[in-house]
Amino acid sequence: MRIEKTFNDFVVKFGNINGSGSASANYLCAKALFRMGVMVTPKNIFPSNIQGMPTWYEIRASEEGHQARRNGIDVMVAMNPQSYQVDVESVVPGGTLLYDSTMVRNFKRSDIDILGIPISRLCAENWTDTRQRQLFKNVVYLGALARLIDIDNEILEMLIAEKFRNKPKLIDSNIKALDIGREYSREFFPSRLKVRARKTTGTKGKILINGNEAAALGAVFAGATVAAWYPITPSTSVAEAFERHTRHFRSGENGKCRAAVIQAEDELAAVGIAIGANWNGARAFTATSGPGISLMSEFIGLAYFAEIPLVLINIQRGGPSTGMPTRTQQSDLLICAYASHGDTKHVLLFPADPSECFTFAADAFDLADRLQTPVFVMSDLDIGMNDWVIDEFIWDDRRKADRGKVLDAEALEKISDFGRYRDVDGDGIAYRTIPGTHPEKGAYFTRGTSHTETGSYTEDGNIHVRNLDRIAHKHRTAASILPKPIISEISAKSRLGIINFGSTDSAVREALALLSSEGYGLNHMRIRSFPFDRSVEDFARRHEYLFVIEQNRDAQMRHLLVAETGIPATKLISILNYDGMPLTAEFVRTAIFEIFGEQQQVAAACATPITAA
Q1: What is the architecture of the domain spanning 209-391?
Q2: Which of 297, 366, 505, 594 supports an S-S bond with 352, CB 3.0-4.6 Å?
Q3: Pairing label, strands 40-45, 54-62
Q4: Which residues of the chain have pLDDT under 50?
Q5: Phi and psi angles of residue 160, each rounded to the nearest 5 degrees, phi first
Q6: C-alpha distances in Å from residue 400, one per residue of 236, 430, 554
Q7: Which pLDDT tens digit goes with each residue over 525-558?
Q8: How far apart are alpha carbons 303 and 372 in whole angstroms?
């Protein structure tokens, strides 16, 4: 079936060679659409090597505001002969393929429009420098595409001027390349494409930002002054963004930055620095990914047992081992929930987009201080390194850092028998002091070995049991102050529900809307934290079957739900995607019908099917 003419509802994909400089031009396309008011979802699909391998950049425009990937490509800009076969196959019937026809190709598809532009030849005729010829090819195809789908030319030129404002000669050269592509398409392809963009107001009051940038800003606004890290894809840009923003927000009178960003010699050293800084009263964090968590585990156990606040921002990627460093997964749940040896259990936060990366990163510091324990912000590559359209950040300048149970010198004067690991209030959380608070009182040993309530070394098994039980009680307390699940029950009679978390949420919500329009009413719960709130079990109790959507092979969230709640395993049906690509709504919809049975069975399980909209 051929696609009809549509506005602001299409997918454009660029097939390039890694290291060719295409990322900047492709991003300009996404940003121009955003400036036109169009809701866009860019996805950068790149290899883990430096250059030479195929790389892709997808932009989905959605009038309805969907931000998940969508199956099928409407316009394919194919610039890499290595990937021509898969690029051509990805175009939907009635779609368009645009390619560099300096070398003419036969793509053997009669159901799509194939537009050849001799991009390499045009660049060779206009520039003598080899590198310029390569770079400006990207801008030439952008100019042609922009005219074919009606991207505003003034906005594109404005974006180029902003990007190269300190290099005016590059502004003129890029606009020249843009014009070359635009004029060629006007002369040889006078008709516009079936899918087009037009100005609207869908992005009013919104920003385009990635999750790593947002998490770094959250850390800055939370008052973090120390970041210790070791480079690892896809988390490196968290530390880089934190350093950049602290130079702006933490600049002292002498112009020096009042924050420390330390690149350690390895991941174990990085988390050790963060623990030491937190013990000494600073707000410190580390950013890493799955392999880094593995290496940090020993020190994570120290922070857990010595009860030192710690924030870890984990940008999950494909594993195990080195795995797929530039692909997304949600495969670190179990290693983070129980990181380190012995009896450990940690606090996890699951942001669904950059907006929650900002708020959860900021909240993580308060939670770590209040609970005196490691807190993991469980982002992933899809959220962290891709741009999302979200509402502008809101921050209350009256908000004060919640440092939890920290005793100052005045409070210590009133206490005759301070016990660092003594539960005074019955919530499992002891009081602590910052080194140097009082010249005589409040000092204690921070121990990774078993200790008494006052911090003295002990091998008394009964005391050790009491200490472990108190820490377990503290984590039950944590469930009451963590972000609650978001629950949407559209049908009180439905026996079916969906559970998801993190970056799968856009695809799940789109799938639910699609199912709803077809008459299937499934209820929905998005989990936002671990340990689980009581409402998770309550939601499960009201349903016979629950589809658990996650991006890993081993159903890690399902394992956590079975292990940590009273939900019967037979209720939880896994829908798993672990190919490294962001989830699509169609994958979720198809999996529900394939796993549960025919559509009639799904309708019956929904009790009274809702009326299609």
Answers
A1: 3-Layer(aba) Sandwich (3.40)
A2: 505
A3: antiparallel
A4: 1-2, 609-613
A5: -65, -40
A6: 28, 21, 40
A7: 999 999 999 999 999 999 999 999 999 999 999 9
A8: 8
Q: Do domains 209-391 and 486-605 have the same CATH topology?
A: yes
Residue boundaries of the structural domains of the chain: 6-196, 209-391, 406-467, 486-605
Which CATH class, in words, describes the domain spanning 486-605?
Answer: alpha beta
Distance linking the first and last C-alpha atoms of the chain: 24
- Distance, CA of 470 to CA of 398 (rounded, Å): 34
Q: Take residue 97 and report the two structure tokens written for it.
A: 């393929």
Question: Residue 2's pLDDT is what?
Answer: 45
595: nearest Cα among 610, 605, 584: 605
Q: How far apart are CA 353 and CA 355, in angstroms?
A: 5
Residues 237/385, Cβ–Cβ less than 8 Å? yes
CB atoms within 10 A of CB 65: 13
Please name every residue paired with 253 in a beta bridge, in sequence order, or none if there are none: none
DSSP 83: G
| Measured distance CA(165)–CA(205) in Å, rounded | 25
Burial (Cβ within 10 Å: 0-12, 13-18, ≥19) of residue 264: middle
- Is the CA virtual torsion 442, 443, 446, 447 positive or negative? negative
Hey, what are 601's tokens?
Answer: 């069975």
Return d(Cα 361, Cα 97) in angstroms, integer: 42
Q: What three-state secondary structure class fits 106?
A: coil
Transcribe 195-220 into DSSP letters.
EE----STTTTEEEEEHHHHHHHHHH
Helices and strands in the chain: count of H runs, count of E runs: 20, 24
Those residues whose C-beta lies under 8 Å from the C-beta of residue 587, and which sit 6 or more positions away, are: 71, 507, 577
Q: Contact 386/392 with Cβ under 8 angstroms? A: no
- Strand pairing report for 486-488 and 523-527: antiparallel
CA gap 208, 189 in Å, rounded: 32
Alpha helix ranges (H) inside 267-339:
267-279, 290-306, 333-337
CB of 271 within 8 A of CB of 286? yes
Tell me if the domain spanning 6-196 has CATH number 3.40.920.10: yes
Tally of residues, the chain: 613
Sign of the dihedral through C-alpha 44, 47, 52, 53: negative
Query: If you ran DSSP here, which 8-state letter would residue 408 be given?
Result: -
| pLDDT at res. 493 | 82
How far apart, in whole angstroms, are the C-alpha atoms of residue 62 and residue 53?
A: 30
The whole-number pLDDT of residue 610 equals 42
Handedness of CA 382, 384, 385, 386 (dihedral sign): positive
Which pair of tokens denotes residue 237? 């840009």
Q: Tell me how far apart the alpha carbons of residues 297 and 312 are, in angstroms, rounded to a whole number.
A: 12
φ, ψ of residue 205 to 5 degrees: the values are 75, 10
Give the tens place of pLDDT for each residue, 173-213.
999 999 999 999 999 999 999 999 999 999 999 999 999 99
